[in-house]
Amino acid sequence: MMKYKTVLFDADGTLYDFEKASVEALKSNFEKYSLKWTETTFETYEKVNKKIWNDFEKGLISTTEIKTERFKRFFEVINISGIDPIGFSKDYLNFLSLNNYLLPGAEEIIKWCGKYFKLVIVTNGLASVQNPRLQSSKLRKYFNNVIISEEIGFVKPAKEYFDFVFKQINNPPKEEVVIVGDNLSSDIKGGCDYGIDTCWFNPSKKENDSKIIPTYEIVKLSELKKILAK
C-alpha cells in the first residue's frame, strides 16, 4: 500500500515553465510599447521581480501592490519614464495568461500520479494569470482542487494557507500528504512548518544553503515515481 494518498503540486517552476512564459510575455509587452529589448532586459526584470515575490511571501506587500510595484521599480532600474505601470502590468499579465508551457516530464508524471493519488495545485500565482493558464492546460483534468493564494487571502508558506488546503481536501492525516515544489522558502518551508513531507524539485541543482530541509530532493520529475510508489 502506498504511503501517500494526496500530492500537492506547486505550479510555476514545478510543472509549468514560468520563465519561458515570462520572457515571451515581457517581450510581447516591450514590442507593444515600442521599447528596446536587450540581452539583459529579462535578467534585470527577474532580479526586481524575485525581490517583490520574496516580500510577498513574507507578507510585506499585497497581491494588488505586486502587480504594479514590480514595474515601477523595474522602470526605475532601466531608466524608463512616461509609461503607466498599471496599464503595462495589465497587458503583461494578459500576455502571460496565454502561455502554459509545461516543463519536461510534467505531463507524464501527472498522468501517472492521476491514477493513484488525489492531486491538488497549490500556487501563490495571480488568479488572473493562473486560472486561464490552468483551464487551457492539458493537466487541469487531473487535479481535484486548485488553490490560488490571491483567491483565498493567504500565501504559502503561511499556516493559514495550508489550513485552507486541508479543509478543501477533507483534512486527511498529514502523513498521507506530500508537497512537491521548486521553491524552498514557500513550498518546502510551508510543508515543513505544517508537518507534512516535502519534495524539493531542484532541476538546476542549486545548493541549499538554508536551514530548510526537504524530506526528498529530485532533479527530474520522473524521480517522483520511486518516492510516491513506496
Q: Key features?
A:
230 residues, Rossmann fold, DNA polymerase, domain 1, 2 domains, six-stranded parallel sheet, 10 helices
Fold blueprint:
Blueprint: E1 6-9, H1 18-32, H2 41-57, H3 63-77, H4 85-97, H5 106-116, E2 118-123, H6 127-135, E3 145-148, H7 149-152, H8 159-168, E4 177-181, H9 184-194, E5 197-201, E6 216-218, H10 224-228
Parallel strand pairs: 1-2, 1-4, 2-3, 4-5, 5-6
Helix pairs in contact: 1-4, 2-3, 3-4, 4-6
What does this structure look like?
The chain folds into two domains: 6-16 and 102-228, 3-Layer(aba) Sandwich (Rossmann fold), CATH 3.40.50.1000; 18-97, Putative phosphatase, domain 2 (DNA polymerase, domain 1), CATH 1.10.150.240. Helix content is 48%, strand content 12%. It has ten helices and six strands, in the order E-H-H-H-H-H-E-H-E-H-H-E-H-E-E-H. It has helices at residues 18-32, 41-57, 63-77, 85-97, 106-116, 127-135, 149-152, 159-168, 184-194, 224-228, and strands at 6-9, 118-123, 145-148, 177-181, 197-201, 216-218.
Would you give the CATH topology of the largest domain?
Rossmann fold
Query: What is the straight-line distance between the termini?
Result: 8 Å
Instruction: Specify the helix fraction band.
Output: 40-55%
Structure classification: alpha/beta
Alpha-carbon Rg, integer: 18 Å
Beta strand %: 5-15%
> Mean pLDDT score, rounded?
95
Main sheet characteristics: 6 strands, parallel
